[in-house]
Amino acid sequence: xxxxxxxxxxxxxxxxxxxxxxxxxxxxxxxxxxxxxxxxxxxxxxxxxxxxxxxxxxxxxxxxxxxxxxxxxxxxxxxxxxxxxxxxxxxxxxxxxxxxxxxxxxxxxxxxxxxxxxxxxxxxxxxxxxxxxxxxxxxxxxxxxxxxxxxxxxxxxxxxxxxxxxxxxxxxxxxxxxxxxxxxxxxxxxxxxxxxxxxxxxxxxxxxxxxxxxxxxxxxxxxxxxxxxxxxxxxxxxxxxxxxxxxxxxxxxxxxxxxxxxxxxxxxxxxxxxxxxxxxxxxxxxxxx
Length: 289
Ligand code: C2E
Ligand code: MG
Ligand code: MG
Ligand code: MG
Hints:
Blueprint: H1 2-36, E1 40-49, E2 55-66, E3 69-71, H2 77-83, H3 86-106, E4 112-116, H4 119-122, H5 127-137, E5 145-150, H6 159-170, E6 174-180, E7 197-200, H7 202-205, H8 207-210, H9 215-227, E8 231-234, H10 240-248, E9 253-254, E10 263-264, H11 268-286
Parallel strand pairs: 2-4, 4-5, 5-6, 6-7, 7-8, 8-9
Antiparallel strand pairs: 1-2, 1-9, 1-10, 2-3
Helix pairs in contact: 3-5, 5-6
The structure holds ligand C2E and magnesium ion (MG) (3 copies).
Ligand C2E is lined by residues 45, 61-62, 72-74, 77, 90, 93, 116-118, 148, 178-179, 202, 235-238, 255-257, 262.
Protein name: Amt family ammonium transporter
Domain EAL: 24-276
Organism: Arthrobacter ginsengisoli
């Protein structure tokens, strides 16, 4: 009976595995072509300072332009990581975003560009050097660059991963811990990590509507990070209530659809205008009377 079950299982499972393998192979080949043809695009989402109430940063978010459609990163970053293509994609996103944002950055030294970095990129020993080279070629001051990494990169036992980030920080680049709260590390561990900014994951921001009983976790994350001298950005803000709460609890910066969706470079001004309108509405709502 066991043999029969095994056989059934084998017959049932194999075509599916093959289909997945084929799909992955095709996707990888397609992605490789896209990189070569310059079809990896970047959209920019504004980040608002709660102190200045204006856009102080744009986060660069990769998009794959494929047959007239834009494929979101959740559908290709993992494949890019597995195939090693993430190295070229990461370099392209940085190069392109430096080029597209340079004029905006040059207007004010307090403005920054945030770029997402995968742990796989950090495995290359020349990563830090390449980042600084691309910034220099694009005439972007390293002090205006923020690299967003997730907690998992800090679990890599290979010490050169941390050394890369420390080298970059020594050159003025800031490191943000992305999706904070979704990983394994405790709040206590935050102190040891070479980071300057924490980005509270949007799943915590959505608690403001759906899980009020867990709100103390959110507020203690903010307070802990701030007491360690870190800056706190909250992502995924969709409602004025969320924005008010996060401002009241000490977040330094806010990002989310409430202000603007990610937009291509030629519509970045639109993002800034949307943000200004959302900020004005927020301020209006909190004015007494
Ligand atoms: P992330 O870095 O945490 O970026 C935030 C994601 O949340 C973006 O999705 C953004 O469009 C989305 N978002 C922003 N505001 C809101 C909101 O108010 N509500 C909701 N529901 N979502 C919001 P996106 O662009 O699809 O990117 C997904 C993830 O893909 C990113 O998450 C990042 O981890 C990864 N990624 C994007 N670009 C790159 C890249 O160039 N390199 C690497 N390694 N990863 C990237
Ligand atoms: Mg990010
Ligand atoms: Mg994030
Ligand atoms: Mg995220």
